[in-house]
Amino acid sequence: MALKAPNVNDTNVPTGDECFQLAGTFFENLNDLSRENQFNKNPAKNADVVKPLVLDQQHLIERQKADDQIKKLLQSVHTEQEISKIPVGYYMSKSGVLMRKWRHPEVAANEEWLVFHQIVVPSEYRAQIIQVAHDHAMSGHLGVRKTRDRILRHFFWPKLYKDFFTRVGLPREVQHGSRFKFHEGLFSEVLQTLGIRQTASSAYHPESQGALERYHQTLKNMLKTFCHESQMDWDKGIDFVVFATRETPNESTGFSPFELIYGHEVRGPLKLMKEKWLTDSPAEVNVLDYVSDLNERLHKASKLAKDNLLKSQDRMKKRFDQKSKERSFQTGEKVLVLLPVHGEPLRARFSGPYRVAKKISDVNYIIDTPGRRKTSVLFHDVDVGDAKPIKQHPYRLNPSKLSVVRKEIEYMLENGIISPSHSPWSSPILLVPKEDGSQRLCIDYRKVNSVTVTDSHPIPRLDDCIDRIGNSKFVSKYDLLKGYWQVPLTKRAKEISTFVTPDGVWACNVMPFGMKNAPSTFTRLMNIVCKGLKGCGTYIDDVILYSDSWQSHIEQTKDFFERLKSANLTINLNKSDLGKASVTYLGHVVGGGKVLPKTAKVEAIYKFPVPSNKKELMRFLGMTGFYRKFCPNFADVASPLTSLLAKKNKFLWSECCQTA
């Protein structure tokens, strides 16, 4: 707020203490800052600034009597006895100032704890009061309703609506966000020492601290306005902006935060003006009576705040329901989803359409969004040199398998995994059983792979990936969600990836399983994403993070997630283990300096039936060979079994074979 200093030659302007000058008061620095910003923005416009506010009581009384609007109110003035019995009315103070009394409708007539005595303001002072209540840095540039409520605590005039860390003791509990800085050692130690319980809000559930989130929105708007006016020294006024929010009555509760905590109003700019005009000093109150009265006021204020909050919530719900419609979606329907714009958290736009995978409740759904998560780091290409297109016919399928194939094709079409094609290339498909009994659709790329130029990018060794973990105390394992399907294909690769079914020809839009160089491409992708990340190991789509301290492990995880976000990759949380002492990684249990075989695999080896032919024996040796490092001299121990696989030897199971 910029105020023009009085001209000493102007006889109409009182001098000395009669003028409301911020200089020389605790507003001095803030006022100098505001005045400088106002005049720097537009010197010509500010040449004629609002006159200084005269805070002389006799001058106020004269202006009240001369004001045309207030003259009408003087006819309805009540006596002191009459005004004490009615909730709203006008009366004269002992010093002759016209006042207005307003009592809350739910407060009894004999109670004065929620009664406001407002000065009736003449027309010439109203602009300055609004300026102090709204434009001043300690006012916060709040909205119409909040500014009005602040003014009504001290002042009133006809048609008012148209003119427009701890001081409260240690808390028992502190609720905060789930960011790492709230959980770090120093902050947690201080709270623990002071006996304060920490409660973190749920991730992606802002409703757990909805009032605070709404307050942040209001505070941001106030700071934007203040920073616009005080671009160079905006940080000096943050305390004043926060003061403004605490002094202003809340729309939901009906009380300001200061009143709910202290049980009385604090001395802000508006109350300071009111005290200047009302020179009558209040009568002294006994300390015991004051404390008793304060407790009673706090209790009643809390009750009224709860009632007002319920009414406000009901009013907001009705207002929201007027424009809202009940919508329900069924599984399989396609919907548009409002998602934040990447890199711009304050913006959002509709994406889709996406298919509804599952309905959880009346308002919560699981949406399939596979098309959103394709990396842009690299594309998979297939180089076949000068080879001619290879055309193959589809394999024959029985009716039950054909129905499975059709469902898989429909799913991949809906999610953009494949698309119809007219390519001269075609490879057949087949169904491979999974561990859970279902079947996986696979493409037979053997002939395509025979003419594909080999990618020389190395695949890491299993033993090296496991040995790197060492004595790490904290281990996290992540599995990428259908990792191959997150890698797009080049135009040439799409034509070569075409496969054929009894119902048509389809081209892959993303990297399929079974292609010769697919593991090398995905390994190259993960090496690019995780390059320079300490304590990180990758094997195709399996990623492991390991460290010796919890704090460094959290930092690793945060960095890893940021890299995944930048690369537009998605992990499968159902197959991931976060922050554990040991995890199952590449068929082994690793962590804490130990490497153990997987219990389920060991039980499968024990329960394997006695082989009856060479083929079954090869299966058994394949299972045991995976864990050969846990068996000293494995080759010597298994020699009776490997000798049976020789072509010249007949398959004859002996006691030595059983011992081996």
Tell me the layout of helices and strands.
Layout: H1 28-41, H2 57-66, H3 68-74, E1 77-78, H4 80-83, E2 88-92, E3 98-103, E4 115-120, H5 123-135, H6 144-152, E5 155-156, E6 173-176, H7 185-193, E7 197-200, H8 210-229, H9 238-247, H10 257-262, H11 269-277, H12 287-323, E8 334-341, E9 344-359, E10 365-368, H13 399-414, E11 418-420, E12 427-433, E13 439-443, H14 446-450, H15 462-467, E14 474-479, H16 491-496, E15 499-501, E16 504-508, H17 518-529, E17 536-539, E18 542-547, H18 550-567, E19 577-580, E20 583-585, E21 588-591, E22 594-597, H19 599-606, H20 614-625, H21 634-637, H22 639-642, H23 655-659
Parallel strand pairs: 1-2, 4-5, 6-7, 12-15
Antiparallel strand pairs: 2-3, 3-4, 8-9, 9-10, 11-16, 12-13, 14-18, 14-19, 15-16, 17-18, 20-21, 21-22
Helix pairs in contact: 5-6, 8-9
Domain Integrase catalytic: 160-265
GO molecular function: nucleic acid binding
InterPro entries: DNA/RNA_pol_sf, Integrase_cat-core, Integrase_H2C2, Integrase_p58-like_C, Retrovirus_Pol_polyprotein, Rev_trsase/Diguanyl_cyclase, RNaseH-like_sf, RNaseH_sf
